[in-house]
Each structure stands twice: as C-alpha cells, then as structure tokens.
Write a structure and sequence with these properties.
By secondary structure, the chain is α/β, with parallel strands linked by helices. About 30% of the residues lie in helices and about 20% in strands. The chain has a single domain, classed as Alpha/Beta hydrolase fold, catalytic domain (Rossmann fold), CATH 3.40.50.1820. An 8-stranded mixed beta sheet has the order 1-2-4-3-5-6-7-8, sandwiched between helices. Helix 2 packs across helix 3. The chain starts with a strand and ends with a helix.
Length: about 230
C-alpha cells in the first residue's frame, strides 16, 4: 500500500507517492519525460522494506502543477526544495532518463542531499549537431505539459557545458545502469559518464531504454547490490 500526498515548494504544488515506514532511510525516485510517479509502481514496493520510498511527479507531469517553465535548473532546485520541505537529507536518489539527468544535476549542485545515486540510461547532455527537432504536439489530453518536451529539447541542443564537466564533482557513490545496444541512448556516452564520476560503477542490462520496466528483476538486483554495499 502507498499514499498520495502533495507539498508546496515555492508556490508550486508537487504530488508524490510514499511507501514504507516513516523514519527509515529515504529513497527518492524520479521518472522519465512524459511519465510520472506511477511509472515506479512495480519497483517502489520492492524497495520499501527497510526504506521510506518517495516517487515524485516532477513539475509539468501528472498531478503536480504545470507552471509552464521547465528549465532543468528549475527542476533540480525544486527537487532540492521538495527534500527540504519533507525534512529529508542524505537520500538515495534514483532517476530514469529525464529524471536521471535531474538526479545527477542535483547530486552535482547539492552533494550533501545525496548519499547514493542511481542513473538509469540517462547520458551526459552534449550539444546536438544537427539540432534535435521538436515533434508536433499529439492530439488530445496528455499526462504531461508538452512544453516540457519543447524546453528540454532546447536544452539538449545547447546544454550548459558545466553539466558534463561537473560530473567529476559528484561525491555520492554512483551506479549507472545502461540499457544496452537496443537503447536509443548511445551506450558509449554512459561509459564516458561513469569514467567522469569519481566513485562510479556501470552495469549494463540488455533491456533497451526502459530498464526498470522491461527487466525489473535485473534492475532490482543491480540496485539492491549497490545499496547493500553502503549499509
């Protein structure tokens, strides 16, 4: 069983789900672009024994507010504000894809907040040549604000070079999980990222980009082994 709650951070209401016992070591799960905290429904309960697990709807997604501004720096700082609002420090931070980018940016900027970091198939952001195009918005209702896609694409095309340079500033022990050759993410970028982060290991699970969805057992085994090393 889990609960769905909300908290306000700098005027933005954020929705989140919680599993586990209050006071246990905290774990925060960050979803991919266009997803939400529900993306972790098969994973979070398995992580919850002995841990307090939070799955956040990032701004512009799901039941959280859709304020229209989605720069990665805003998301990074808002997640830090979310942790502060809940009185959480030294969390295990697990992010997939878009959420993985937010996770490693947070670990760079606020190292004291992150005890351990797991990045699932999320590469360092490098300038795109030719630039990535934004596809037209699909018809009908969506579970996220299409402006997230538009603004993230712009930042992918011309990222702040410090986001890659400062991977070397991450102090948390880090696990990078790659999806292997069937992922659309070039896996050599994950190799390069793992080499930049001082205390990092790289595990490949041949599942494509959606590792925790398509191979949950292998994902949980890799994450579980990594977390047990720190206990």
């Amino acid at each position: 069983m889990h609960t769905l709650d909300t908290v306000e951070v700098d005027g933005v209401e954020l929705a989140y789900r919680v599993w586990g016992t209050a006071g246990d070591p905290p774990v925060l799960l960050l979803h991919g672009l266009g997803e939400g905290g529900v993306d972790w429904l098969t994973i979070a309960p398995r992580l919850a024994p002995g841990r307090r697990v939070y799955a956040l709807d990032l701004r512009g997604h799901g039941a959280s507010d859709w304020p229209g501004e989605y720069a990665l720096e805003l998301l990074r700082d808002e997640v830090a504000g979310f942790l502060a609002a809940l009185g959480l420090t030294s969390v295990t931070l697990i992010g997939h894809s878009y959420g993985g980018v937010v996770a490693y940016l947070l670990a760079q900027r606020f190292p004291r907040l992150v005890a351990r970091l797991v990045v699932e198939d999320a590469p360092p952001l490098l300038p795109q040549d030719p630039p990535l195009a934004v596809p037209p918005r699909p018809q009908g209702r969506m579970a996220f604000d299409w402006a997230v896609k538009t603004q993230f694409t712009a930042q992918r095309n011309a990222p702040d070079p410090r986001w890659t340079e400062d991977l070397s500033a991450i102090t948390a022990p880090t696990l990078v999980i790659g999806g292997g050759p069937t992922s659309h993410i070039p896996q050599e970028l994950l190799v390069g990222m793992a080499e930049r982060i001082p205390d990092c290991r790289l595990v490949t699970i041949d599942a494509g980009h959606l590792v925790h969805e398509r191979c949950p057992e292998e994902f949980l085994t890799a994450v579980g082994a990594f977390l047990e090393d720190g206990m």
